[in-house]
Amino acid sequence: MKTKVIAAAAVLAVCATAAVAASGISVRQTAKVTGTNTDIWAKIGGFCAIKDWHPALAGCEESKEGDATFRTLTLKDGGKIKEKLTGTTETGYTYQIVDGPLPVKDYSASFSARADNDEPGKAIVVWSASFAAKGKPDSEARGVIEGIFKDGLKSIADGAAK
After folding, report:
1. 30 closest CA partner among 20, 18, 40, 19
2. Residues 6+ apart with CB under 8 A from 159
3. Could you tell me the pTM of the whole model?
4. Which stretches of 85-137 are DSSP H helices?
5. What is the Cα–Cα distance from 111 to 85, expressed in whole angstroms?
6. Distance between CA atoms of 52 and 45, rounded to whole angstroms?
7. Domains of the chain and any CATH numbers
8. What distance in Å separates the CA atoms of residue 91 and residue 111, rounded to the nearest whole number?
9. pLDDT digits (tens), the chain, 162 positions
């Protein structure tokens, strides 16, 4: 009987996890830019390099807490967003928002550059995130993140084309 109860609890946990994932919000945007993915990544890929290409940012400060790396983004309106680096690849990284004014929670994102296999000499910058809305409707939270991605990727594409 105890085994059946444990099995049932495991099934419920899996179902609850699937339900949360199904109700989460995902945003994914890309930009095609001139240059190889490694050349593009050299310009945009540092964890605090975002301050150099995202138009909403006034600054970025990188810090360590134990073995963890964080960045604190300062918005042009004075707001601050603290993010934790959660993984890296040769031309990409993943991160989570720890604190900030955005209407999101459980925010996890990836940012990378990959070769465009259809057009040699071009790269595709990919920015994606999954999250839940916090204090606002899902549509508003999605719109905020879509706007952040759109503005950042446009700036990268405009800068890379020069």
Report:
1. 40
2. 43, 53
3. 0.83
4. none
5. 11
6. 10
7. 25-160 (3.30.530.20)
8. 9
9. 433 333 333 333 333 333 334 349 999 999 999 999 999 999 999 999 999 999 999 999 999 999 999 999 999 999 999 999 999 999 999 999 999 999 999 999 999 999 999 999 999 999 999 999 999 999 999 999 999 999 999 999 998 545
Q: How crowded is the C-beta side of 145, counted as CA atoms within 13 Å? A: 27
Q: CA 106, 107, 110: angle at the middle one, nearest 5? A: 140
34's tokens: 């001139």
Angle of helix 37-44 relative to helix 138-160, nearest 10 degrees, comes to 110
Looking at residue 159, its pLDDT comes to: 86
Q: Hey, what long-range contacts does 142-150 have (CB within 8 A, 24 or more apart)?
A: 142/25, 142/27, 144/102, 144/103, 144/104, 145/25, 145/27, 145/102, 145/104, 146/27, 146/29, 148/54, 148/56, 149/27, 149/29, 150/29
Helix %, strand %, coil % of the chain (to 5): 35, 45, 20
Name the H helices within 1-137.
2-23, 37-44, 50-53
